[in-house]
Input
Amino acid sequence: MTRWLSRRASLRCRRGTAAVEFALLAPLFIGVLAAFSDLGIGAYRHMQAVEAAEAGAQSAVRQGYNSAAVEAAAAGATSLPSISTSSTQFCGCPSGTALAAVGCGTTCPDGAAAGGYVTVSVATPYTALLPYPGIASPLTLSAQSTVRLQ
Output
């Protein structure tokens, strides 16, 4: 009879259960935390690329279009490694939410003269800390900003 009681008592003993549960779930929590941190770093770097493109566009508005100066302003606005910048100047007519590229000096469908625009593009590679299915590594993060000059 005492043997049966000691067996029932050992089944009710819960000492160490929390440690076992923690040992089983800790790797899962660490993996989720690492994935969210990694994706957060990628999102932050994309925001830096967007800010760099906007800084280049602001430089074109303030100082006029000079390709080298605009690209230098974009590259200098961020600390991203291996950033590539480019800028183009074009004439266009606004049509809804888009710009229709037209020849400079032409008249837009609404009767206004075509405006001068600058587009600044920024791209930088991002290598994730963890491999994710369906996401290439390294991933190119890019941003673009377009402003009207005149």
Observations:
- Residues 43 and 78 are 15 Å apart (CA to CA).
- The chain has one domain: 2-148.
- The two ends are 98 Å apart (CA to CA).
